Sequence to fold (344 residues):
Amino acid sequence: MQLDDAKDKFIQAWGALGSNWGINRTMAQVHALLLISPESLSADEIMGTLKISRGNANMNLRALIDWGLVQKEHKSGERREYFLAEKDIWQVAQQVIVERRKRELKPVLRVLEDVKQVEGDTNDPHVEAFVTAVEELHSTVNQADRFLELLVKAKGNAFFDTLFKLFAPKVK
Amino acid sequence: MQLDDAKDKFIQAWGALGSNWGINRTMAQVHALLLISPESLSADEIMGTLKISRGNANMNLRALIDWGLVQKEHKSGERREYFLAEKDIWQVAQQVIVERRKRELKPVLRVLEDVKQVEGDTNDPHVEAFVTAVEELHSTVNQADRFLELLVKAKGNAFFDTLFKLFAPKVK
DNA sequence: CCGAACTTTCAGTAATTCTTGAAAATCTAG
DNA sequence: CTAGATTTTCAAGAATTACTGAAAGTTCGG
Fold:
């Protein structure tokens, strides 16, 4: 396999992964491209490589910056902006966890708390069954949320670092 | 808030959560409905409540069964099928992890191994940079994969049970 | 200021994904 | 077997989501 084919194959695979996770394919592809670029790239380079329009490149780059996965870089004496991806995938994963907790888990937790306040006789078996189910859900989602919080805070934490390394004996 | 409004609100929220995670909204809504139903429901009941067509209900129920989140139930003396959701959300999460590892992480790992075999002079700085980046990615994704594997196997494992409970002191 | 270089926006269009509904298939009681 | 009840399939249409390209906006050196 040639280098360019290999790059393309990786970009496609990363794009497919993203699209299974509710991330638009192009956004994931731009991310992939930046992940394997040692140097930062300009919007034009990205447009050219991925064959996408300027508007599309701009929007997806902005979204990536929003997620904290990509940074703008200004080269001195140059008007043009360059883009650089965070290369440490754990860092990326943490960033994604932080954002998704904020954007998705928190709202669900709020709704669960909210619907627990349903009106009606607590002795009504229908109400009671619903409240019980919702409480159970709330408790578990909350547990998951706290677990993820810990995972994110574990950066640099010796306990988790050790735990993680247990599963990757061959990391160099 | 009335019971039916509360149910609807929860169903909508769960649907929105799903659609952010690459799961189609209706599938997540069907799942939500079953989660808060103490008894199993027939396809007609689901169609009626969610106002969806028979075909749609059938497809999404099948997908939920595929993911191991819902089971068919046959009531004796009845031709009609009923559907029942797994109520334990940790169980649900584990099931989802198992499936996504299989469907998404594994293929990415395969591609990463594959593109590492790129042809060309290892001394070519372009090739070298690419291979290094891919190796780094592979190692981290692999680490994550093993971590998730452990998480799934931890069911009933005292270590993780304890760990989890640390984050939910108020679980009853 | 001016204008060149570059970035952002967004209305219209394209592509993708989801849903419907009706026909075909399957099942089961009699 | 047969017929009614039920489930499954799938082509066509609807809805959603993503992309383009051109126009508007921004920035900055001179």
In short: Chain A touches chain B through 59 residues (CB under 8 Å). Helices of chain A lie at 3-20, 25-35, 43-50, 54-66, 89-116, 125-153, 158-166.
